[in-house]
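Something for you to look into today, if you have time. Just paste the record in under my message, thanks.
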Amino acid sequence: MSKEKLLLSLVPFWSPLNPPLGISLLKSFLTRNGFHVETHDFNTMDELWEILDRYFNILSKMVPVHKRGNFHMVGFDVLSNLLMAYLHKTSRQEKEYRELINVLLQKNYYIDTEGQGNKSLVEEIDRVLEEFYTNLEKALIKVVERVKPDIFGISVFSPSLAPGLFAFHEVKARFPDVETIMGGGVFADHLALDSPNLEVFLEKTRAYIDTIIVGEGELLLTKYLLNELSPRKRVYSLEDIHRETLDLAQAPVPDFSGLNLAAYSQMAAYASRSCPFQCGFCSETVQWGKFRKKTGEQIADEIATIKNQYGGKLFMFGDSLVNQVITDLSHHLIPRGLDIYWDGYLRTDPEVGDLQNTNLWRKGGFYRARLGVESGSQNVLQRMNKKMSLQQIKDAVSSLANAGIKTTTYWVIGYPGETEDDFRQTLELFTELKNDIYEADWHPFYFFPKGQVRSTQWVKDHGIELLYPEEFNELLMTQTWELRTNPTKEEINDRMNRFGEECRKVGIPNPYSMMEIYQADKRWKELHPNCGPPLLELHNNHHLR
C-alpha cells in the first residue's frame, strides 16, 4: 500500500481558539521527509457550530440558571456522550438510547427530565445530533474525494472522539483502500495505554481504524510510514522507538497552509513539550515524557516567521507552562518590535509575584496568563502536589494584573478529599482576588484509570465505579469512572453551581461569546487601565464564534 499522500484532519468539537497545532507540525515534519501532506480542519465549519449553538439553546431551556455550574464545559461532556450513543444505537436500542439521554442530563446537571416539556426537548436534541452527522458526512466525503489520499489521519481529543470514529467509519466504508490512522490527546486520558477503555475500543473499531499512534507523533509516525517499525502491530507508542523524543532545536515551524485561519481568534505556537512538574491530576508528563524546551531566540524566530507568512497579532502557546521560557523569550522579542501579543499557561511560582518580572514580560508582549490556581485550600494544593502556597498565588495574580496582563484562572472542583471547608476557602480566595482576575474557568475533577500521574494510586486507595450504568456500555463504548471517595458526584455538582453563582455575584465572566468577551474586556480596562487592547481588536479580521 502506498503511504506517500496523507490527509490529516481535525473534527468537531474542539475549542476554536487557534489553528490545530498538532496536524500542522506533523505536516511540516512529514513534508520535510518527502511525504505529500494536506490538512483539513472540519472544526471550522460554520454550519456545525450553528448546530452546537442550537444544542446549547435546547440545554438552557432544560437546566435552570442555578444548576448550570460551568454550563458550556459540562455541556460539552454531555454532548460527547450523546454523540457516541447516537453513533452506536440500533433500532432495537431506541428505548435504551432515550433513557440514556435522560441519565446523562440527570447525572451531570441533576435535573428532572421526565416533565412533558423536557421530553419534547429531548426529541429536539436527537434531531440536532442527526443533523450534525449528516452535515459532517457530506463535508468529509467531499474533501476525501478531492484529495484522494493514501492515508487518512485524524488527531482526536476526548470531545471529538465520537465524530472521529464516525469519520473513520465513513471513509473506510466508501474508500476501503485508504489506510486510516488515529492519534491525538485522547490517548492521554480516555484511551490511555492499558486503560480498561482501550481494549474495548480496539476490538470495536478493528474494521475501520487500521493504525493507532500514541504519543508524540513526528518521529513515531515518520518511522511507521518509512516501514521502520514492526508491520505486525496495530498500536504504536513511544516504546516502539525506545522512547526517543524530538529534539526541539531541530523541529520545523508549523505549516498552517490550507487551513481556514480566519476562523480562529489567534495564531498557534509552542515553546516546550511535557512539564517539569508532577501535579496529581495531570497527564502531560505521562504523555510527552521528559521536559524539553526551545531557546528564546528560536521561539522568537518562529513567531516572526509565522507572523510574516500568515499574519495575525495574537499568539497562543499550547505548552503546559511557559514559565521556563518566558523571561528569555521576552528579552528576544523586545528588540524585534514585532507588534505581537501572546497568551500562555503560567504557574504561580515566586518569580511571577515580582512586578519587575511581570513588567518585563508585558513589555515583551505577554498579554494573558492562564493560571492553574486550582484551589484556595493549602490542604488541597498539597494533595495535588502543586508545590505552591496561597501567598504565592495571591502575589502572582496581583503582580500580573498590576502589569496589565490579563489573568485567566482555572479551578478544579472536587479533587479527591476536598472537604466543604476546603471549598469555602476556594470561594474566599476567589472573592479576595476578584479585582485582579480577568476571567474564571472552573471544572469538576476528572478521573481516568490510566494516564494521570496518580491514577494507579487513586485506584489502589479508593477503588472505582462506573458513573453510568452498565446497561449503557454498548452505546457509550468508552466508559466514565469515578472514585469511591468524597466528595461525591452530587457534592461536586453542588459546588460547581455555587462557584458559578459566586462568579455572577462578583462580576467575573467566563466568556463563551463575543458579547461576553466584550464585557470582560470593558470590566478589565476599568480595573486595570494599563492593560493592552481589547481582545476583539487583536483578531486581525478573524472572527469569534
